[in-house]
From TrEMBL:
Domain CBM20, residue spans: 1-125
Signal peptide range: none
CDD domains: CBM20_laforin, DSP_laforin-like
Molecular function as annotated in GO: carbohydrate phosphatase activity; protein tyrosine phosphatase activity; starch binding
Keywords: Carbohydrate metabolism, Hydrolase, Protein phosphatase
GO biological process: glucan metabolic process
Domain Tyrosine-protein phosphatase per the UniProt entry, residue ranges: 150-314
Residues annotated as domain Tyrosine specific protein phosphatases: 234-292
A single Gene Ontology CC term: nucleus
Name assigned to this protein: Uncharacterized protein
Gene3D superfamilies linked: Immunoglobulins, Protein tyrosine phosphatase superfamily
Length: 324
């Protein structure tokens, strides 16, 4: 028996570099660089430039169980430029390990449309796996330096990204047809990152609300602590239900925090899981392929789902969401 397995990774690399996967089984090249499986880069738009923000790479690989009930293998991602190979991590201790079987609950969560979707990997540095803070900071320093609003369209009516920093950014949202904004920034976040909208304004959160109203955009402010799984668990149910209500009322919604990496990603992912009833594997792949810098807090999403159902019941959207 064989199965199609989807490998994917996000990594900060320049335009001339390609990414491959190599592993311990023949289908993955048996660790031989000449037999590497080259991945395909997604067509997500670079707003900062290659190397300054992560890109998303993936490939479907047909793999055989060879008559066994489970498939065990190890693998790594490898970058390649001008004949030079760079393996992620530092030696075998950073090998990624998988045991695939079709006879348990995990398998049903990973199997989407006949494809076994492995968790999207974040490139492992020589010093080990980066945490959310390091991952976000590497991206945010360039967003702040260039004073841009970095956003992506997830669906026609769901957009995800960083905070507006200038008044022109709000005009940009309006030109894109955005009719509602959900901000997950704290008051101190707004004062720090949005001061370019109104210089020296000491009550920017209230001023922003008035500005959005003047532009005919509904504004929902749901402050969440940054880089906190506990804060996401506490606020996910309310944020997801707000997003659900706005969408059902016909809005095109922009969801943002500071960078559009963690908090806002959690709300959009929560909507896909709790309302559209997508598996976490499907959510992760679809979000990261469109917004590679997104950080998926799986623990928060899984933990908060019970609270969402307890508060709002089994919720379904009356809208149709088409994957592009």
């Amino acid at each position: 028996m064989s199965i199609t397995v989807k490998f994917s990774v996000v990594t900060f690399i320049d335009r001339e570099t390609t990414v491959s996967v190599l592993g311990s089984v023949p289908e993955l090249g048996s660790w031989n660089q000449k037999n590497r499986i080259e991945l395909t880069q997604s067509d997500s738009e670079f707003r900062l430039g290659p190397g300054l923000e992560p890109s998303f790479w993936s490939k479907d690989v047909e793999m055989s169980f060879n008559g066994k009930s489970e498939l065990r293998f190890e693998y790594k991602f490898v970058s390649h430029k001008n004949g030079n190979f760079i393996w992620e991590g530092e030696g075998p201790c950073h090998n990624r390990k998988e045991v695939l079987t079709l006879n348990d609950k995990t398998a049903s969560e990973l199997l989407v449309n006949g494809v076994y979707i492995l968790p999207v990997g974040i490139w492992i540095e020589k010093t080990g796996q980066v945490n959310e803070y390091e991952y976000t900071t590497r991206f945010m320093c360039h967003v702040e330096r260039q004073q841009i609003m970095h956003y992506c369209k997830i669906f026609e009516n769901i957009w995800l990204g960083s905070c507006p920093r200038l008044r022109s950014h709000i005009m940009d949202l309006k030109s894109q047809g955005i009719t509602a904004v959900i901000s997950l920034q704290t008051a101190s976040d707004i004062q720090k990152h949005c001061s370019g909208i109104y210089r020296y304004n000491q009550n920017l959160p209230i001023t922003l609300k008035k500005l959005y109203k003047e532009e005919g955009i509904s504004y929902i402010w749901l402050p969440m602590e940054d880089l906190s799984t506990e804060s996401r668990i506490e606020n996910l149910p309310q944020g997801v239900y707000l997003l659900h209500g706005l969408l059902n009322n016909g809005h095109r919604v922009y969801v943002h925090c500071n960078g559009g990496v963690g908090r806002s990603t959690a709300i959009v992912c929560g909507f896909l899981m709790y309302v559209l009833h997508w598996s976490l594997a499907k959510v992760q792949y679809n979000i990261c392929s469109k917004r590679p810098v997104a950080f998926i807090d799986g623990r928060a999403l899984i933990t908060a789902e019970k609270d969402f159902i307890q508060k709002f019941g089994q919720v379904k959207s009356r809208l149709t969401f088409i994957q592009e």
